[in-house]
Each structure stands twice: as structure tokens, then as C-alpha cells.
User: What shape does this take?
Amino acid sequence: MTIPNALTILRILLIPVLVVVFYLPFKNHLLFAAGIFAFAAITDWVDGYLARRLGQMTAFGAFLDPVADKLMVTIALVLLVERHDTLLFTLAACVIIGREIVVSALREWMAELGERTSVAVSYIGKVKTAFQMIAITGLLAIGPRGDEDWQLALCYVVLYTAAVLTLWSMVVYLKAAWVVIKEQDKPI
Assistant: This one.
């Protein structure tokens, strides 16, 4: 067990804690939920950094890290869709979750073809992730009808920016894969 893998497992174990805290009826429960999510987001960065820095990159970590990230983001968005029950919020959440499914399937398929590096994580994907984590943390903290409307509006802008970056990064990955897809579809 490496430190990066332990952090990834911790992120997964924090998911049910996030859900329970989100629903518990105590003062500042949303701030605590946001803190849990923010901590998980930070461990995502830390585990990747440590894996590279300490030379502790493993096949298990390469598999589990993106799974942990997608689970945490997806479950947080599902929780938030209930609280922020608007068409625009739900569409943004659907775009983000849908993209994660498409890109995960694309990466799996490309790996089977021996072309996984064609759809490796890009810079735009990292920026998208940062916007997602910031937006979700803020939305978890303030609730759907925050005392400060400007805070809620800012979180929505960051989430919609993340959704646009999500689509953009998906298009980048699909374009990179398209070359391989066309080559695979040629008659023998």
C-alpha cells in the first residue's frame, strides 16, 4: 500500500460521509459537507503529486484514482441537483456526468486497442477539473438559496464554465481518438 493509493482509498471512503453530513440536520452541515468535498479534492491533487514525486505510480492507483474522482464528483452533483432543482443546474450536472461516462468508455476502448496515450489527460481536462471542484465546493457550502445571492451566482458561473470546459475537453478527446477509430474501421 502506497501513500497515494491510501489517499485515493480515503477519498472513496469519504463519499458516504459526505452524503450523511449533507443530509444531517445540524447547524453548518453544508459547510462541513463542503469541507469534506474540498479535502477530497485536495487529496486528489496530493496523491498524484506524491505518486510522481516518490515514484509510487502503480497500476492499481492508475485504475482507482480516476474512479474515485468520478464517484466523488458524480455523487456530489446528484446531491446538489436535489437542492438546486433548476433546469440550467440539472443540464450542467448532466453534461458533466455524461462526459465522464463517455470519456471513461473511450479511454477503456482505446486502451484495448493499445492507444490509451491518444486520450491521456490533457491540460484542458485539468482546468475543467479545477473549475468543477471549486464550483461544487462552493455550491455545497452555501446551499440553493444562500444569504448572499452573489455567491450563488458566482458558483453557478464557475459550474457553467466547468460544463463548457467539460464539453470542450470531450471534443478534444474524441478528435484524438477519431484518427484511431477511422483506422480501425478500414476494411482489411
